Amino acid sequence: MFGYDSYVAIGDSFTEGMNDELPDGTFRGWADRLAEMLARGRPGFRYANLALRGKMLAEIVEEQVPIALDIKPDLVTLCAGGNDIIVPGADVDACAAQFESAIAALRSAGIHVVIFTGPDTKQLSLMHVLRGKVGIYNAHLWAIADRHGARVVDLWTMDVLHDRRAWSDDRLHFTPEAHRRIALRTAEVLGLPVEEDWREPWPADGEQSTWLTSRRSDLTWTKMHLLPWIRRQLRGESMGDGLAPKRPELAPFRPVQPTQAEDRAAAN
Questions:
Q1: Which residue spans within 225-268 are E strands per DSSP?
Q2: What does each of the 268 residues of the chain score in pLDDT, given as a tens digit?
Q3: The domain spanning residue 177 has which CATH number?
Q4: Which residues form the domain of 59?
């Protein structure tokens, strides 16, 4: 019979769930959605989410991985390194080596591990310059997974994530509908039966983007998201400073989610 009795999610804002916001201002995200699917029919299922926005790879390896090793759950998902490789001058090969050390430790402990490739940024205005670095990092991730027996959720080849509606205004985080689809894709990788299909096409979009509207959007994004991010990097600050993980302990899973109607409305 299929099943995991315990699951720990570690990583940065992607795994924390930004920007899949709940009514109370917290984030749901693909990991919570996956935990809900894993918990079905398993009353003893337990879940922790240690991920926190802004975390760099070294912080995740030093702070979150040891907790996961101590807890030793059946399953760990790990996505990390994205905040590192987008920094100008970052050594992608060194990031991959550090990532591999975490995967090796988790797998040596007998924990099932799922990792995630970076998404393809080709369709994202201005962010497409990162495509080469993401591609190199992804090649490392596939090799790491092969060497250590980890499973891979390939975000790069998820065509539904190439639609602008998969991305929040900050062009770094996914929308609620994208989180839903990523959860379904992860469940598929784990062999978990699901009733919905992450490949389902987006509804027809009648909004047309012109050169002028695109440039205005780029300018707004630069002012609201890029420049503040650069300032934080220069100051050594993080969006997660002073915050704590939303589910810091392995505990029985209690889903907190919007109604189905609210969930579907967010998809459009």
A1: 247-252
A2: 458 999 999 999 999 999 899 988 889 999 999 999 999 989 999 999 999 998 999 999 999 999 999 999 999 999 999 989 888 888 999 999 999 999 999 999 999 999 999 998 886 654 567 788 999 999 999 999 999 999 999 999 999 999 989 988 877 889 999 999 999 999 999 999 999 999 999 998 755 554 444 445 555 555 565 566 666 665 666 666 678 999 999 999 987 655 443 454 444 4
A3: 3.40.50.1110
A4: 6-197+245-255
Measured CA to CA, the distance from residue 17 to residue 21 in angstroms comes to 8
Which amino acid is it at 145? A
Q: Are 158 and 185 in contact (CB under 8 A)?
A: yes
Helix axis angle, 92-108 to 131-148, nearest 10°? 30
Strands 247-252 and 112-116: unpaired
Q: How far apart, in Å, do the first and last CA atoms of the chain sit?
A: 36
Question: Of 182, 194, 245, which is closest to residue 26 (Cα–Cα)?
Answer: 245
Q: Is residue 191 part of a domain?
A: yes
The answer to whether residue 210 is domain-embedded is no
Number of domains in the chain: 1
